[in-house]
Every structure is written in C-alpha cells, then in structure tokens.
Specification:
binds nicotinamide-adenine-dinucleotide, 11 helices, 38% helix, 12 strands
C-alpha cells in the first residue's frame, strides 16, 4: 500500500503520517507514505519521523503539475491536507487561500486522474457551512462560507465533487470541526493561549468570547479520516466532530487553570471581522460508519497543555 499525503508536515497531516507509520491503522501497518509539502510557515519537518524508511518526503507545491506527475504514479491513495488554514491570515490576504485551496486542489485532482490514483480523500472543514445559531448541519446543507478561508475550502470541496461526478474519480470529502492537540502552530487559538499563558503573557479573546466551536482531538480526526478512506464511499461527504461544544471564553478560563496563570491575563479584544458565532455538525453518517471519538475533551486539553509545557523547543526555539 502506498499513500501520498499532501500537507503532511502540518498539524493534522503530520499526525496522520506519524500514526500510519506507527502502525495504528489496521491493514496499513506496512504502508509506504510519501509526503508532498511546500513547507510554508505552517509546515515543519520536525513534525515527522524523517529517518523512518517507509517515509519519503518531497518538498513541493500541489499547484506544480510536473512535480505531481513525477511523484503520484504508483500510489494507491492520496490524502489531501495541504491548505492555507488560518482564518485570520485570510482576512488580510486571501489570494494564497484561493490559489492553494482551490487551484491547488484542482491541480491535484487532475494529476490524480492522470496518474490513475484509486482514491482521493479531501480533508475539509465544517466552516464551509457558515454559522448556525441552533441545531446542526448534515452533509446536505448548502455551503454558505463567511471567511475567505472557508470560501476557498468550499471551492475545494466543489471542484473535488465535480472530479467525481465528471470523471468518476473516487473522491471522498470530509468536513471536520475544530481540532486541537500537539504540534499545532501557535497562531491557532488553543496553542496561542497555552504558549502565552505559560510565559505569563496576556491573551486576546475576540468579542465577548461567546463563540462556540465543536472541538475534536487531532488523533480522533485522523482515525475518522482513515475510516472514511477504508470504509467510505466514492463521491460521499462525511462530517466529522465530537458533539462537544465549548465557548472560547470557557476554553480560555480552563487554559488559565491548566497553565497555572493569572486570570487577569485574559483581555477582551475587538471581534474578528465576520466572526462565525457557532458551528455544530450532525454526526449521524460518520457514527454509522463506526466512528466514536476516543478522547474526552477535558483530558485531551490537559494532555495538550502538558505537551506544550514539555516541548518548549518545538514552539519557542529560543527557550529550548
Ligand atoms: P496547517 O496549516 O497546520 O498545515 C498545512 C500544511 O500544508 C503545511 O504543512 C503547509 O506547508 C502545507 N501547504 C500549504 N500550501 C501548500 C501547497 N501549495 N503545496 C503543498 N503543501 C502546502 O493546517 P492543519 O491545521 O493541519 O489543516 C490541515 C487540513 O485540515 C486543511 O485542509 C484544513 O483546512 C483542514 N481542517 C483543519 C482543521 C483545524 O482545526 N486545524 C479543522 C478542519 C479541517
């Protein structure tokens, strides 16, 4: 079995690669993994077991047709994580988002078709649905993305579906809620707060802190992705989440406790432009496929804080 993982040096992709190479996925214990990653600011080879003999690392761009033509043939599956992923960055410059997330996905799909890849799993986000005050979304909801990031991910989903419908490429799409866990770039809410609070620095909470997100541990997300790869169906979309809804304010309070920090370090700041209030997913379809999260949120958050506390050299090179 040969699996190509785009964006495999990022937060979620690298977890997936480490888990696969560690033999955590039944039937894939001997899989060979090729990572294609551009190593933007978000990619880091320190996230990967670079000396593992079943891992091949290729620094490259998913928008590069020649590179994909040389790398993809011979792989059974492509798991596509590569993306510009930070909403705040998309508010100040959206072009890289449209470029990598839409054009990059399109190039990857075209190249997969030419290379005869059996299955392409496109990793997407619940943010493509927009914001929902009450209730939850199933996979048939219309796409109403509100940020340049989520709009570009919706574009990615649409070109992926079209590749299935037009060309019969076996494409599967997943839409996951917010992830947390080790190796997440410190620009994102949970690691940003942890790494500042551990150093006694203030943290800024957007608006009134009442925004609600559904949090899933990265290990659970990756386990669900593997389930969709092995047991999912071509052309189908699968929501992935935990059902655990938490406000940003209560996460901040909990992180203050876990980091042993002063509660006065939480500062309320002007809200993010177009800030979605709440995301919530109907998880019936992925549950039916056999997925149940293994991590309980409180314990997962505690172990995440411990990881950042124990690995200062990963996130603050001058502190290592
Ligand atoms: P990340 O920003 O940590 O990693 C993205 C990776 O993609 C990096 O290694 C980067 O170098 C690489 N990359 C960027 N542009 C590239 C290009 N043009 N060619 C090749 N590689 C490129 O992101 P993440 O948090 O690990 O997210 C992975 C995927 O999961 C994304 O598609 C994201 O939209 C999706 N997702 C993330 C979350 C979350 O909470 N983080 C939730 C749901 C879905």
């Amino acid at each position: 079995m040969k699996v190509c993982v785009t964006g495999g040096a990022g937060f979620i992709g690298s977890h997936y690669v480490r888990a696969m190479l560690a033999g955590e996925y039944a039937g894939y214990e001997d899989a060979e993994v090729t990572v294609v990653d551009l190593l933007t600011y978000a990619g880091n080879t320190a996230n990967l077991p670079m000396d593992q003999e079943r891992l091949t690392f290729v620094r490259g761009d998913i928008r590069d047709a020649d590179l994909l033509a040389s790398v993809l043939p011979g792989h059974d599956a492509v798991v596509h994580f590569a993306a510009e992923s930070h909403v705040d960055r998309s508010l100040v410059g959206a072009v890289p988002f449209a470029s990598t997330n839409v054009l990059g996905t399109q190039q990857l799909l075209d190249s997969c078709l030419t290379a005869g890849i059996r299955t392409v799993l496109c990793v997407s986000t619940d943010e493509v649905y927009g914001s929902i005050d009450s209730g939850c979304w199933d996979e048939n909801e219309p796409l109403l993305p509100n940020s340049p990031y989520s709009a570009s991910k919706a574009g990615s989903d649409l070109v992926a579906r079209a590749a299935w419908r037009t060309h019969g490429l076996d494409v599967r799409i997943t839409r996951c809620s917010n992830n947390y866990g080790p190796y997440q770039n410190t620009e994102k809410l949970i690691p940003l707060f942890i790494t500042n609070l551990l150093r006694g620095r203030p943290v800024g909470l957007y608006g009134d802190g009442a925004n609600v997100r559904e949090w899933l541990h990265v290990a659970d997300h990756c386990a669900a992705l593997q389930l969709v790869l092995t047991d999912g169906r071509p052309g189908e979309i699968y929501n992935i989440g935990s059902g655990v809804e938490v406000t940003n304010a209560s996460i901040a309070d909990r992180l203050v406790e876990l980091c042993g920090a002063d509660p006065g370090l939480i500062r309320y700041v002007a809200d993010r432009k177009g800030h979605d209030l709440r995301y919530a997913l109907d998880l019936g379809k992925i549950t039916k496929l056999g997925f149940t999260p293994a991590y309980e949120f409180a314990a997962g958050l505690e172990s995440t804080v411990r990881w950042y506390r124990d690995h200062p050299s990963w996130w603050a090179p001058d502190a290592g």
